[in-house]
Records
---
Amino acid sequence: MIRLRCPHCGLRDHSEFTFLGDATVSRPGTEAAGDLARGGAWSDYLYLRRNPRGVQEEFWHHGRGCRAWLVVTRNTETHEVLDTRLARDRGDRA
Amino acid sequence: MKAYSAWSVFRHALTGNRHWPRAWRDPEPKAGYDVVIVGGGGHGLATAYYLASVHGIRKVAVLEKSYIGSGNTGRNTTIVRSNYEQNANARFYEFSLKLWEDLSLELNYNTMFSQRGVLDVAQSEGMVERYIRRGNAMRLNGIDAEFLSPAEVRSMLPGIYEDSACRYPIHGGLYQPRAGNARHDAVAWGFARAADSLGVDIIQGCEVTGFLQEGERIAGVRTNRGDIRAGRTGLAVAGSTGHVAGLAGLRLPIESHVLQAFVTEPVKPVIDTVLTFELADFYISQSDRGSLVFGGELDRYSSYAQRGNLPIVHDVLEAAVTMFPMLGRVRMLRHWGGVCDMTPDGSPIIGASPIEGLYLNCGWCYGGFKATPGSGWMFAHTLATGAPHAVNAPFALDRFERGYTINENGAGPFFNLH
């Protein structure tokens, strides 16, 4: 079982959380609307992923707990959790 | 290559099976090849075989970091089917299924392909509508499909739960009689042996660590056994696609996820078809040895670990004993995880990459095994001619930015929901 240390709730089983995905992609603004061409901001955001075999920052939602969005730094090869923080504390990219 | 036959089995039996020749060579890598395929699973080996047999391109190497068939080829649950609704999927998987039907003869290797049928059990009114719709779409594409009544489903499955004992009564089922399963290792070994006999070098213990770049194009690979030049380089590395493509600086519409599977001790024949229970995220079949082979959903977080977590073990076993209460006392032999290269539309990618000289065969999600011969055939065509066949053209990488996704189950652009 992967266990995540939620800043609000403490160490919890991962079955309380929902995985969203890579937290390094950022949602483009409305000025990029309709821009799906290669290299376009929306195409990148929706589809392209770094998908590293190793350390990745990712979004998890504590849906069966405090319902906060978290940014978890985790190793995808070993499942080791390196860091957990609130997504809202990142401000710009959350 | 000496062909296997009933006579050779008999002759070798008389001498205690001590004199079988090895099935494929163990060559040192050469300095260069016309085509280098990265990944010695079923797809890579099938690609090499069809490059040599259909296109006459025999200066081909298959590079495998471990031993052949050690990744998802040896980890899947061996189901072969073409019961898809979307035209592109239906045409591609039916092409593959037709190759399966002649594969043992073609390769002179028994792949133990058994057309025992795949039955998707409908457990709600809504599923009945959807399954009939999918069945009709299949028939329009020339694929066999039958909708079975609840009584017909029950007559096929004597051990299944009673309606009164379950929240979801059986409403019928979508049956594809020509579907079934095959021996997964034999598919890798059969393609390896046939490709090797046509001159393909299968190089095991050879891990790609980078690419040889010449200006804008890729001209080969760097490996732990030296540099190997290639006219064209094809990736068929399934769950490791993100990692290997990353060595070439590519980001792809792929996220790696873990899918678990389970096998019980061998028991007498109880299930003579392949069953899926979509509502319970559960599917099951019985191997020729008697083991029940089954599985469920993704763990749903990205992973390269080739092992899963206990919540899915719990969910799958709960579904198993709910659908087949008789399994309550059956002992598990083992369970394992495989890394699935999930795409945001649930369909694979076969075609050119944005980098000249580099071609992609990836994004098989958890459905790559059934595609093995079809994928190899189409990838070989693409590598040999530099352009996709009409059947794999819809699976181009640029379909995402063009808006032509092939989204079988209608989930959004989320890798773990397909």
Note: Chain B has eleven helices and 18 strands.
---
Amino acid sequence: MAKPIVRLAGIHKSFAGVRALQDVSVTLEEGTVHCLVGENGCGKSTLIKIIAGVYPRDSGTVEIGGTLYERLHPIDSIREGIQVIYQDFSLFPNLTVSENIALNEQLAAGRKFVNWAHVRRVAQEAISQLEVHLPLDARVDEMSVANKQLIAIAKALRQNARLIIMDEPTSALTEREIRTLFTVIGKLQRRGIAFLFVSHKLNEVLEISQSILVMRNGQVVSAGPAGEYDTARLIYEMTGQRIAENAYEFTPDPGQPALLRVRRLAVPGVLQEVSFALQAHEIVGVTGLLGSGRTELALALFGMLPMTAGEIEIDGKPAQIRSVQDAIAHGIGYVPEDRLTEGLFLEQSIGRNVVVRTIERLRGRLGLTDPLQVQQQIRDWVASLRIKTANPDLPVKTLSGGNQQRVVVAKWLASRPHLMILNGPTVGVDIGSKNELHELIKRLAREGMGLLVISDDIPELLQTCNRILLMRNGTIVEEILPRQTNENALAAKLIED
Amino acid sequence: MGQSTKRPVWSLAGDSQPLRLLAITLLIFVGFSLVLGDKFFSIRNLQSMAVQFPEFGILAFAIMITMLTGGIDLSIVGTANLSAIAAALLLTRLSGEGGAGLALELSIPLAMVAALAVASACGLLNGLLVARAGITPILATLGTSSLYTGLSYVITGGPAITTTQLAFIGNGAVAGVPIPVIVFVVLAVVFAVLLNRTSFGFNVYMLGTNLRAALFSGIDDVKVLMRAYWLAGVIAGIAGIIFLARVNSAKPEYGSSFILLTVLIAILGGIRYTGGFGTVAGLLLSVLTIQFLSTGLNMLMLELSGSSAAIFFRQFAWGGLLLAVMVVNDYVERRRQRAT
């Protein structure tokens, strides 16, 4: 049996009377990859913060590296070799790779002058432990997300990490980058380093981990070796119910002109010769690696990225899309890739986020905005999309990921678009909400909307789309029908060169 | 934790700043009234304060609208003076001694239109620089501020242009209320309607909160920013006319301390300098607070030192207060972040 690094027993934790953790007992052993799964709000992040010493517990015992801690401070946790890599990686974007990895300890040692040769050597050592190649002198903001993550791991290793906790480590990575990450993790694991993964991607959870912890409503409801679980059981444990998704069936209507027809669209350097059509009632998936042009295609159709060649037809009529305003005038809505910076006004209220597209129309006497109509519209959308909130006047940032995404969708639905482009519609959304968003997408298509779903979540594409377009190097290389493929075949195609 | 359902009442209210500010305003008023007695709390003093605050109070709206978009307009005093000079020039040339002899009934509206036209042009240039050229507002308007003030010097050659033809506005009153106060109140009402009941106002708040999300939501950023800076220019023009009416002269360097003062008013009034948040109510209370402080401190210093050197203390006080308010706001905000 491997030696335990962290042993928690009977942990309770409440915030202002709301119970976040209830009688949680967890043991994390060295050289093991543990996965922590659960829906948003189930207590995962609270548990991590207790291990990291950020939150004090209300009761229970915390034992780390064989020492019982009465009060665990963040510094104790770091000294015991516990490193948390958050989604933002906490790196300095304007410093180089080697500076990010090695400068910390130079500062900690209280040196007034930096020994650059030493910094480079230390950084090189840390990177070679990962057996990857990273340019030591490149600035971190020039690196891809995947490389930033590797830098963060290298930095953690320099601080003698024994347990590395990673929050949603694969959510911004492409398939190939995930492979690299998993290889690195495998190597470190063999050297005795333990990992705790928090992830929503259940396939990956099952693939990488040896031990699984499922949380629901602040309790660990299920724990055991990964071999005892499959996706269906994980979903069942997480939600307490069985969820089955059915593929979307679409029967083309030959009499109708295409809702959207794109011919030989080009944007220099990112897109060339992109041609496809989309009917009303259709859900068309667009997939490809990062850099394949999938997001750029969405931006071009939404008027954010001006096209230099090609034609767009909407409802059989030629359309010029040169600005976002043009796209909106043609009935196109876009749910962007990055919900937090592009989709939402985080500090503003849920209600304001919902009506931002339609405020101009909600006018009463004297052409002034009518507060009653505004309130009514907000209430209608919160109810019809089942956005879970006590009060729509609260800032939208108080909502969970799934509910936030519903607000972005509501914002567009309120303006009644004919065509919706959704880029990564369920990234960072928990499994129950994900399912509901998929049902919503299908409902909209049934009601007559055309939808373009950009995603690299293969099960999502197979379950929601009636057609999938595969992009590579800025163009569409293949059209795939979900019923003629499966998850493994599609995944293989995605990373093929 | 974000998902806790119970939260303190004050965070539900979303914006508690106006209430807090109301308490501070009343406290300062009552405090000075107690300490200084009827020197401060008298009809005469109230009247004298009422003719002082509209000048910078009106300018504060120009700072407010640009600050809500996430920017700032440092050229408002330059714009106000240039507009005042345009009006004064027209008045003296058309109806002054040795002028063209035009009737005042005609020359006064003409002068006002000229002032507002100049102010519009100043505002539009700021808008172009910020919205089209994409220059950081603080630098763009620092540049135009110098440009407009410089232009004023070129036009006047330095000395003030004197005209008393607008004094009836500066000293006049309707039903006992000074005309500048009426202008200020009307502007406040217009602003409250503009910000709360029009899509332009709504878009200003959204754009100031997150420019990228605004673009992705189809808000035309260039249009909104152009309008905001144009509006700031026009308000500065109105302030310019009030300057001219109050002091009976227009000169390039009048009211240079108003820039810092109006920024202080905006920040104290709860307008977030990163954009997106702030109310007219907060601004009104802040204008009153600053006027009470200004008069009260002056009287207090005079009482204590017996000299008029008190005036020099004011600048120090404004700077200190601005920094203190920002530190306190930052602290309150951080505590709130931690609590939620």
Note: Chain B is about 75% helix and 0% strand.
---
Amino acid sequence: MFRNLEELVNQAREAGQPLSALMIDHEAETSGQTREAVVAQMARRWQVMVQAARRGVAGVEARSGMTGGDAKRLWDYVKKGRTLTGSSFLTAISFALGTNEVNAAMGVICATPTAGSSGVLPGVLLMVQQRLQLADEAVVQALFTAAAVGYAVANNAVISGAQGGCQAEVGTASAMAAAAAVELAGGSPQQCADGAAMALKNLLGLACDPLAGLVEVPCIKRNAGGAAIALAAADMALAGIRSQVPVDEVIAAMYQIGQALPLSLKETAQGGLAATPTGCKWKELLWNS
Amino acid sequence: MKYRSVFDIIGPVMVGPSSSHTAGAVRIGQLARRLFGRQPQHALIRFYGSFARTYRGHATDVAVVAGLLDLDTDDPRIPDALSLAAQQGMEVAFSPEQAVPTHPNTVGMVLTAGDTSFQVVGVSLGGGLVQITEVDGFSLRLSGESPALLIFHRDAYGAVASVTQLLAGQRVNINHMEVSRSDRGKLALMVIETDERVEPDLLRLIGRQQHITKVVTLNT
């Protein structure tokens, strides 16, 4: 049992175990299932994530006509081999975009922690899996570390855009992905927590202001941003960089900022990008047709 | 703890585009239908807060109807729920409301079949997790994650004890319970969430107890 990530990190350090192992124990205990059954359930969810990401980079279109095809565009560009950042990084971005395009097209995805932020974690983990040549079992295990971070945010703050803005969705997803990536690369529980803290810090204050209220613009590309920040944070943590503000305090700050955000910036399609001339044009087109 | 399982965080597996406005809405519709105990012939669906402003974009309307058809959150037929409902003779009407709700993602429903009708209010908490907050005018907090009994009874001493004794006798463990009433001495509602499913024989026995007027079950 743990109330926040500091408690979980301390328990992991004392037990000499990764965060994921403790989270699997926790789930087995609270659900009354065996560890094997819990891991098998997570493995099925990983398969849903992989399928959605692959479907996305093959190219999908949303019914609104507003989004689709960008993951494929990026994927084709990566395959040509001449990029600024490199194919590894852009693999994460392509899969993050692709998953969220499938979501916008009313396809089947796994929410991580929400549907609007469902691209960040699969994007990062698919890239880390390829880069470090990991078996699916290792990635499935790391999903529990991601879940531990999301669980702490959900229970101590909020994870819905309507309550906390985009920082609560993509911010949380990015923190989850950073922690999982750090664990997969061999980082300590404390480094996982620092990675999560640095990712979330970079997304604090982000408004939830989608055009016409659809989980499309800017949500899909913010999944790309969330994945990029998660990777930057994970590498910083692995290099031994600490977050000056501990992760639980960052989560508390996110909650407080979410409370302070006006309703117009919390999934109501009333402010921010939704209220720009382009946003108003799409609202007019999609709401009154 | 609002979220108890890692699969509330890594999950649900669902049809997009929004866990709160689509998957959560499917789940509220499904819980409402299961509490009603049948498929409604008519459903009036009222949206409040963020739901009222953005239900078209998130397909919240389609999602609630999918739930009323008892589709799960990952059912690929969800996008076609409105035409499925029409085929099955279920009439639906939507009404975006101005009133400011306690929770930003609130939906109220009036379900009718024949001469019975049922009112239910639900909220979507985020990440697909929901809560039923009102049934026929009574306040409650029902997650739908555990099997549950909603027992309408006269507000009199002994009513609660008669039910809990019967459950104890059949080794059914209660994990959450609450009681609310309309007015002192009038009608009350006890909501009992249990670890085990409650078998039909025991339900019939509970329904025959003094003061009990109606028993509604929710099996997950």
Note: Chain A has a mean pLDDT of 96.
